[in-house]
């Protein structure tokens, strides 16, 4: 999972979130070209409920977040069990990870600059407007469409919940302010003199309500507390 995904929940006041499903593929770039096949994730987002399935894992393997209930589960279909995750520990770990990332990128220095990119693009059949966010050594180019009635919250709510919006020096707030639903995100980050570049693309977007069963352990599954070896 990337920060763009774990960059999944509902703290900010405003309109009710639009339920959306999408598939996100993230690749690491070397000299502007993919260095491998990348990582794909399937995401079901519905405000305080989110389900994330890694694309290279057996069907049904998932992380389920239920912030409305203060619960989280790791689904193990091979053993038909759901591991109940300590949500406070998950939040604390997220805060530490993103705070460290923010320090390495220097995003707390000088605020965030947002500028519109001059040329629109067509991505997945949608006309998209582009924006560049710059903070410290991090540069994020985002292309969004207004034709999909869902916003950036599917990508930023987890960071709001974890407290990462403060650690990222306004970058999350600037991302949340962009109009539309993002279909492509390219990041350039200089960490200790080394350039890191990733490209995330969104496909198969479907807007509409999700089945409640997606956000709960299936009937008949054992629910177990996580052990130290499962963290």
Descriptive labels:
231 residues; alpha+beta; outer membrane lipoprotein receptor (LolB), chain A; 14-stranded mixed beta sheet; 14 strands; 17% helix; 42% strand; globular; disordered N terminus
Quick recap:
This protein has 231 residues and is an alpha+beta fold. It has helices at 87-105, 153-162, 164-167, 171-176; strands spanning 20-30, 33-34, 39-46, 49-54, 62-66, 71-76, 81-84, 113-116, 121-123, 126-135, 138-145, 181-191, 194-207, 222-225.
Structure characterization notes:
This protein is α+β, with helices and mostly antiparallel strands and 231 residues long. It has one domain (20-230): outer membrane lipoprotein receptor (LolB), chain A (Clam), CATH 2.50.20. It has four helices and 14 strands. It has helices at residues 87-105, 153-162, 164-167, 171-176; strands at 20-30, 33-34, 39-46, 49-54, 62-66, 71-76, 81-84, 113-116, 121-123, 126-135, 138-145, 181-191, 194-207, 222-225. Strands 1, 2, 3, 4, 5, 6, 7, 8, 9, 10, 11, 12, 13 and 14 form a 14-stranded mixed sheet that branches. A hairpin with a 4-residue loop joins strand 5 and strand 6. The longest helix has 19 residues, at 87-105. It is globular, with a radius of gyration of 18 Å. The protein starts with 19 loop residues before the first strand and ends in a 6-residue tail after the last strand. The model is unreliable at 1-15 (pLDDT under 50).
């Amino acid at each position: 999972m990337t920060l763009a995904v774990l960059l999944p929940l509902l703290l900010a006041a405003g309109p009710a979130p639009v339920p959306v499903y999408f598939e996100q593929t993230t690749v690491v770039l070397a000299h502007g070209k993919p260095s491998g096949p990348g990582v794909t994730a399937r995401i079901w987002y519905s405000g305080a409920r989110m389900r994330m399935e890694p694309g290279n894992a057996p069907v049904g393997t998932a992380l389920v977040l239920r912030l409305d209930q203060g619960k989280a589960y790791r689904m193990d279909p091979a053993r038909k069990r759901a591991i109940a995750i300590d949500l406070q520990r998950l939040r604390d770990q997220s805060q530490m990870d993103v705070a460290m990332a923010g320090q390495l990128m220097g995003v707390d220095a000088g605020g965030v600059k947002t500028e519109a990119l001059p040329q629109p693009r067509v991505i997945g059949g949608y006309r998209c407007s582009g924006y560049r966010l710059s903070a410290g050594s991090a540069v994020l180019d985002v292309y969004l469409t207004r034709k999909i009635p869902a916003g950036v919250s599917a990508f930023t709510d987890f960071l709001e919940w974890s407290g990462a919006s403060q650690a990222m020096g306004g970058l999350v707030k600037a991302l949340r302010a962009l109009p539309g639903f993002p279909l492509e995100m390219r990041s350039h980050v200089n960490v200790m003199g080394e350039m890191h570049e990733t490209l995330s693309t969104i496909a198969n977007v479907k807007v509409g309500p999700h089945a409640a069963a997606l956000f709960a352990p299936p009937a008949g599954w054992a629910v177990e507390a996580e052990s130290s070896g499962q963290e």
